[in-house]
Design goal:
heterodimer; A: 77 residues; Translation Initiation Factor IF3; four-stranded mixed β-sheet; 2 helices; 35% strand; B: 328 residues; 15 helices
Chain lengths: 77, 328
């Protein structure tokens, strides 16, 4: 099980989402992707996409005010 | 004084709801294509439904008089499409760019500055001939208002019932993934619909032209005021657009989400270009995603409906050209 971190702070919409989609494509089932975002909007869209796509939204942490770390476990397609 | 109170009051509420609901119509339209998700689109439809029913009720009570612009179909198509393309470059619609200034987004500030300059230039400056030529192509409807109901040969109420009751029922039964830190889409849609309806009353109370929420006209008026100092340019809408980032700032501070953030320089320039494109498109189409897609369709304007369809097509084209293709 690999763990990969993707930092999309400072990116503008829809790049936080499209970069997450791209990063997930490169992972194997069971791998973990941690996405660091600084946009409240991207936090919602990425979390929503992960659940809708059937991946496991492991959790959302808030390391500091206005920044979030979304942990997603890749599921079988 | 009424204009200041009505405008700032509605703007503050609008900005607060937009920030807590993370409401962006660019995201709403884009995600239908990009990730086949309807969550924010449903919030938009709910707000539209609530507002449409309430303002027609207010008109029935004699509190408002609803009006629709002439059917400038070519300007609606071209302007809507150009505005949609601009949103994809700017990374947000006009209302979400305004509110995200209140979250500390420097990129959104740049979008709004360019939107204001381009809207002013297209409305009453160097680019005005473009808008005048495109808007001169129209269908003459005589004395009748250019509304969707008129085209269908119906009065407003039957159309509202046929259109919005099934929609409201579908929305009531529909579910989406729960939000993380923001509001659920149903709460956002409900409150946005109420603020949109309140905006119509506020405009009437302030003695201005009866119209609901809008961003484009007031953005151009703000530029005229800044450039010429003419106090007549300060309509209630100017105070409404100024209230939006303030309301969002209160919401973001309250929820500990305010933080200064800036994109990389080349992204900032992309956003600047997007903001300018949006300003031109919005004035040509006679409104943006708020003035046309929310307020105008709520009043059953035919021009607003056509502009919104092309705005969505522009968003999808831009998303495909600039992002989907590139992401491979």
């Amino acid at each position: 099980m690999a763990v990969r971190t993707l930092d999309v702070r400072g990116e503008i919409c829809p790049d936080p989402l499209t970069l997450t989609l791209k990063a997930m494509q490169g992972l194997a089932v069971g791998d973990i992707l941690k996405v660091i975002v600084d946009s409240p909007m991207a936090l919602e869209t990425i979390s929503r996409w992960a659940q809708k796509a059937g991946h496991r939204l492991v959790g959302v942490g808030e390391p500091s005010a206005g920044q979030w770390e979304i942990t997603i476990e890749k599921a079988a397609p | 004084m009424e204009k200041v109170i009505a405008g700032l009051g509605v703007g503050l509420l609008f900005g607060f709801v937009l920030q807590r609901g993370r409401f962006c119509m660019y995201t709403a339209f884009r995600d239908i294509l990009l990730i086949k998700d309807l969550t924010l689109f449903k919030a938009y439809l709910l707000a539209l439904t609530i507002q449409a029913v309430l303002i027609h009720l207010f008109e029935e009570l004699g509190w408002l008089s609803l009006s629709a612009p002439s059917f400038v179909w070519l300007a609606a198509m071209v302007g809507g499409f150009v505005f949609g393309l601009g949103m994809t470059l700017a990374g947000g619609c006009s209302s979400s760019s305004y509110y995200r200034i209140g979250e500390g987004m420097v990129g959104s500030f740049v979008v709004v500055v360019m939107f204001i300059i381009a809207a002013g230039a297209t409305s009453g400056g160097a680019l005005r001939p473009l808008a005048v030529i495109l808007r001169s192509v129209q269908v003459d409807m005589g004395e009748s208002p250019a509304t969707i109901s008129h085209i269908l040969g119906l009065s407003s109420w039957p159309l509202i019932l046929v259109l919005f009751i099934p929609l409201a029922l579908w929305l009531y039964l529909s579910r989406s993934a729960p939000p993380q830190r923001g509001w659920a889409w149903k709460k956002t849609g409900l409150l946005l619909g109420l603020v949109a309806a309140l905006a119509w009353l506020a405009s009437a109370w302030s003695g201005d032209v009866h119209y609901g929420l809008r961003m484009t006209g007031p953005s151009a008026s703000l530029l005229f005021y800044l450039a010429n100092g003419d106090p007549d340019s300060l309509n209630w809408g100017v105070f409404q657009i100024m209230g939006v980032p303030l309301g969002a700032f209160l919401a973001a501070t309250w929820s500990r989400e305010f933080q200064w953030r800036a994109p990389k320089p080349h992204r900032l320039m992309q956003q600047a270009l997007g903001g300018a494109t949006m300003g031109v498109g919005a004035v040509v189409a006679g409104g943006c995603n708020i003035g046309n897609s929310l307020t105008g369709i709520g009043a059953l304007s035919l021009t607003s409906l056509v502009a919104t369809i092309f705005l969505i097509l522009g968003t999808w084209s831009g998303t495909y050209l600039f992002f989907v293709r590139r992401a491979g």
